[in-house]
Specification:
Its main location: mitochondrion. Keywords: Amino-acid transport, Membrane, Mitochondrion, Transmembrane, Transmembrane helix, Transport. One of its GO terms (cellular component) is mitochondrial inner membrane. Helix content is 62%, strand content 6%. It has 325 residues and is mainly alpha-helical.
Length: 325
């Protein structure tokens, strides 16, 4: 009885938690990025999809609870792209962002970076980001491979240029003490990654700006394609990609600069890398759901703000679009 009271009645395609509040979105995305979904077998995934199909067609087996239906939808949403209906490659799912991205974050934040190591880590980071952005894009319109390559090249170039440029400036800043220079150098990844993330999202999803994205009415029917909605979707996603690296690339350097002064760690230097790794993992794991919860994935926009042809095609005051992640 307590379980059913705590669990709302299942609604197919609807989020379990209220998407009108930040806390509701946070609980929703904690489910979406749950790393345990990476280990779901093909058999289990198919069972979840079948269960949801049975519910849709009114042929649900007796005894199936709301909890089981919500769990099935959680697994499907974590693995299957909402627009294409295809499986997202494991490292590029939002549930794989932290496990597969943390080693790269650790590399970016290592002290005493050379120009070569900076280039390698920024390239790896933007390569991973580009694939995550592409895999979780709004896919209501096809994207040519050439656009993906252009976006990828632009994102990597911007990240490497900013990071290397800032490192060179710091090296030439003779007035800074070695300790100050090291702290500032550790903070270089943030402006480099934040700027490149904006470029990455914009370039990887530029096709949406030219072709528009589908907007849906209250019944989930496609009203038309809107370039204005696409612009809103990309701006919201880009903003989350600036917020996301802020704690990841600012807090660990500050925490580690304090921990490294502790007598225990000064006499046990081999523990620095494991502790640094744990700090990065925890910060990344906490930052991701907060950042992507700033906006609902299925965002809404007033029809009056969109193109005239959209307003003429529906009586709805508000339409919905997939912002992407």
């Amino acid at each position: 009885m307590a379980e059913s009271a705590a669990c709302p009645a299942f609604q197919l395609g609807r989020p379990r938690y209220d998407q009108g509040s930040f806390f509701g979105r946070l609980r929703h995305f904690v489910d979406i990025i749950d790393p345990s979904t990476l280990f779901v077998s093909e058999k289990r995934l198919n069972e979840c999809i079948k269960l949801l199909d049975d519910y849709k067609h009114g042929s649900l087996p007796p005894g199936v609870s709301d909890v089981q239906l919500w769990e099935a939808q959680k697994i499907k949403q974590a693995i299957i792209h909402p627009d294409t209906g295809e499986k997202i490659f494991m490292p590029f799912r939002m549930s794989g962002y932290v496990p597969f991205g943390t080693p790269i974050v650790i590399g970016l934040l290592l002290p005493n970076q050379t120009v070569v190591s900076t280039i390698i880590w920024q390239w790896l980071n933007q390569s991973h980001n580009a694939c995550v952005n592409y895999a979780n894009r709004n896919a209501t319109k096809p994207t040519p491979t050439s656009k993906f390559i252009q976006g990828y090249a632009g994102a990597v170039t911007s990240a490497v240029s900013i990071a290397v440029g800032l490192n060179v400036l710091i090296q030439k800043a003779n007035k800074l003490s070695p300790a100050t220079r090291m702290i500032i150098q550790r903070l270089v990844p943030f402006p480099a990654v934040a700027s490149a993330n904006i470029c990455n999202v914009g370039l990887m999803r530029h096709n949406e700006l030219s072709k528009g994205i589908d907007v849906l009415d209250n019944n989930g029917n496609v009203v038309g394609s809107s370039r204005i909605a696409a612009r809103h979707a990309i701006m919201e996603t880009a903003f989350t990609r600036v917020v996301l690296p802020m704690p990841i690339f600012v807090l660990p350097p500050i925490i580690m600069s304090y921990l490294e002064r502790l007598r225990f760690l000064q006499s046990n230097r081999r523990l620095l890398l494991p502790i640094h790794s744990v700090v990065c993992l925890v910060t990344f794991g906490l930052s991701l759901p907060v950042a992507i919860s700033l906006f609902p994935q299925m965002s809404q926009i007033e029809v009056s703000c969109l193109e005239p042809e959209i307003a003429m095609a529906t009586d709805c005051k508000v339409v919905t679009y997939n912002k992407g992640l």
